[in-house]
Write a structure and sequence with these properties.
The chain is α+β, with helices and mostly antiparallel strands. Helix content is about 25%, strand content about 25%. It folds into 3 domains: about 30 residues; about 70 residues, wza like domain (wza like fold, 2-Layer Sandwich); about 70 residues, Roll (Outer membrane lipoprotein wza fold like). The longest helix is centred in the N-terminal third of the chain and has 31 residues.
């Protein structure tokens, strides 16, 4: 026969469980928010991105492709498709509508970004150049990836040109600002 010997111990376990549950749910929500800050849920495809297209139960329609300089990919049955300017969800919708009817009855299409285009760091850093983007990269992390600041670098005069800015206008940016694929970060020289 089973008998409770210490009911307070069971209540303590329940309370501990609730505290841990609250802690983990807050951390999961914080992690989800980090992607939102970087703007990636509405990420717009651009030249250089590597994407994967899958159609459920249709192996012939599986494709991994890098977006060309013209902003296109070549897709089975549909030919050359312009993909720049679309989010992955919008592209999946476009492909679904083009395949539906003539080719398939009810296609289930998914588009995933396998590799983002590079971001660039130049100016007063040790190793300027292009680097693979990963979600959550800040200006500070990008400069670290580029070898860190040179001795004469200004930590206050840092500009970014966003890939989607039609004017290519440099904008001042703080070290903790998130960057996006295709961004060009320039670290200016300090005169003091």
């Amino acid at each position: 026969m089973f008998e409770y010997k210490n009911p307070i111990f069971s209540i303590a376990n329940v309370l501990l469980f609730l505290v841990l549950l609250t802690f983990f749910s807050q951390n999961v929500n914080a992690a989800k928010g980090a992607g939102t800050k970087a703007g990636l849920p509405d990420y717009v495809l651009g030249t250089g991105d590597m994407i994967r297209i899958q159609v459920y139960d249709e192996e012939d329609l599986y494709l991994e492709s890098r977006v060309s300089d013209r902003g296109t990919i070549s897709y089975p049955f549909l030919g050359e498709l312009k993909v720049t300017g679309f989010t992955s969800k919008q592209l999946a919708g476009t492909i679904t509508s083009k395949l539906k009817g003539d080719y398939l009855i009810n296609p289930k299409v998914s588009v995933d970004i396998m590799e983002y285009r590079e971001f660039y760091v130049n100016g007063e850093v040790e190793d300027p150049g292009g680097f693979p983007f990963q979600p959550g990269v800040t200006v500070r992390k990008a400069i670290s990836i580029a070898g860190g600041f040179k001795e004469r670098a200004s930590k206050e005069k840092i500009n970014v040109i966003h890939d989607d800015d039609p004017n290519g206008e440099p904008k001042p940016v703080k070290l903790d600002a998130f960057i996006l694929p295709g961004d060009i970060i320039t670290v200016e020289e300090s005169f003091f």
